[in-house]
Every structure is written in C-alpha cells, then in structure tokens.
Specification:
transmembrane helix, 0% strand, 7 helices, elongated, 77% helix, mainly alpha
Length: 199
C-alpha cells in the first residue's frame, strides 16, 4: 500500500489525494509510511559519506569515518521524523483559521505524503556531487510544495481558494522550521558535535 501511494503521488497526484482521503487511514499507516521512506536517504547519505566520498568542486573527495557516518545517518533519520511531526502539528494548529477541522491523523497523513518527494530526493546522495544533490533537492522541494497545494483542499475539505491561503501559510511556517533546524545543526556542529573526517 505504501509503494502504491508513492507511485500515485508522482503519477496522478489529484486522484491519489482523493484515494487517501476516501480510505481514512489510521495513524499507523502514516507512521509506517514516514518511517519507511525516511530510511532511504539516510542509508544513501551514510554510504556516500563513508564509502564513495563527497566531491566539492575540483578538490579531492571527502570521506567521513564509519562511526561518524552512522551517527550522521541516525541524526538525519530522527530529524526527518521530527520535522514531519512538526509539519503535521503546524497543519493541525492552523486548520481552524482556514475553516478546516482535521484530526491529527489527517494532518499527519498530509505531512507524511507531502514530504515524500523532498525526503526521497536524499537518495541523490548516492551520486555525491554537491551541485547534483542540490538540484535534485530543489526539485523535491518544488514537488512537495505542489503536493501540499493540491492536497490541502482535498484532505481538509475546504474550497481551493481557502486551501491556497492555508497551504501558503504552511509553506511559510515550514520554511521557518527549516531555518531553525539549519541553525540548530550549525550550533551543534560548532560545539563539538560535528562529524569526524578521514585523513
């Protein structure tokens, strides 16, 4: 079922949102989806960091130690899950302002399925060229934003005009959340929690 939703969100997103809405899945389905999807970029990031090496411009490839790559992968996995739950809470918290009354399960469904393209873009780490990963990540962000705009009116049962404003508010709050995560990462990195590079 999880793979069906992933394929459907790429192949025919509007129909897939209607299918997701009609099925009224349990919170377990959304959790299973996000727990499964979040593994893929973390494994790719671990493998690229420890075994392939990151290439930045014309410099030699940069490698992390195995232990450091594992810690990076685990931190990335926990970060993805935490960010998805935070996005779900934002969707749930803002709902009444726009005339919607979703359950937290519906909000988590929307967050989990909307975040899928940007999360899966992390698989691009298997070709660890900074320009390539950045390009794929931007494409994933763009498609996730599209899914959010398409999915909010369907799952929240509100008119498209209100859905547009709702989605715009969620995108803005999501960008603020992303900046907070980046700042937190930078603070941790500079205070001794950064990775160890192979010499």
């Amino acid at each position: 079922m999880i793979l069906n939703h992933i394929w459907g969100l790429y192949a025919h997103p509007m129909e897939e949102w209607k299918t997701i809405d009609a099925k009224r899945e349990s919170i377990v389905n959304s959790l299973t989806h996000i727990l499964f999807v979040a593994i893929l970029p973390c494994v790719a990031a671990y493998y690229a960091s420890a075994h392939i090496g990151w290439s930045v411009g014309a410099r030699e490839s940069i490698f992390l130690t195995q232990g450091s790559a594992v810690m990076l992968g685990v931190a990335m996995y926990l970060g993805i899950i935490a960010a998805t739950f935070a996005l779900a809470y934002l969707v749930y918290w803002m709902a009444k302002t726009f005339g919607a009354d979703p359950s937290y399960t519906q909000s988590l469904e929307l967050a989990a399925y909307t975040a899928t393209p940007v999360i899966m873009s992390g698989i691009a780490a298997l070709y660890p060229e900074l320009w390539f990963v950045a390009l794929i990540f931007l494409a994933g962000v763009a498609y996730s934003v599209y899914l959010l705009y398409a999915g909010i009116p369907v799952l929240m049962h509100i008119p498209e005009e209100r859905g547009f404003l709702y989605a715009s508010s969620v995108v803005t709050a999501g960008l603020i959340l992303m900046v907070i995560l980046m700042v937190t990462t930078a603070i941790l990195w500079t205070n001794g929690f950064g990775p160890t590079f192979m010499s």
